[in-house]
Amino acid sequence: AATAAHTHTHTHTHLATTAPPPYFPLPPPPPMFFAAAATLLAVALVAPQASARIREGDCEVCLKTMQKFIDASKAAKAKKPAQIEAVIEKQCAKFKDSKEIRLCYYIGGTSDAATRMLGEVAKPISHFLPAKKICEKLKKKDAQICQLTYEKPIDLEGKDLSKMRVKELKNILNKWGEKCNGCTEKRDYVKLVEKLKPKYAAKPQSDEL
Known about the structure:
By secondary structure, the chain is an all-alpha fold. 59% of the residues lie in helices and 0% in strands. It is built from nine helices and no strands.
């Protein structure tokens, strides 16, 4: 009993000598801290939306191609997403411009496409969304879609096609998405380029307002 009492006294003495250190509360953060945090949060929330917005001159291939899909869907009276997807695939098969074909590849409108996002196009069209809104949605999925730009029209004004090489004439036709079937001589290429020039070549700007 004496030993137990001694142990109890010793433990009580030990606990008394190991009291926790005094607590000093940290001062509250200044008001500017909360203002800065709120600003950062607002930027974080707005930044993704701002990056998805299309600025003037951006997404030209997407905007023009989406409008073609919208017009073709109206003409075919396609209202359901599945019907609109079929219209898009038909349109993609008709495209000759390399950039429009590339866009079709990105959204899965070509047979060799690695991904399929036709639903991301067909569904908004069925809900009557404009081309700009559709492209903004697609941009969030794949930024490459809005990086596509059309080739600048070839300026043939004042150029003598007969003095150009066959390779140059072929290159012009390739950029236009055309082929010179049955062409065996240079004059055949010249004749076809002359025929198609009003359709594809850059038109001279008028000085009139």
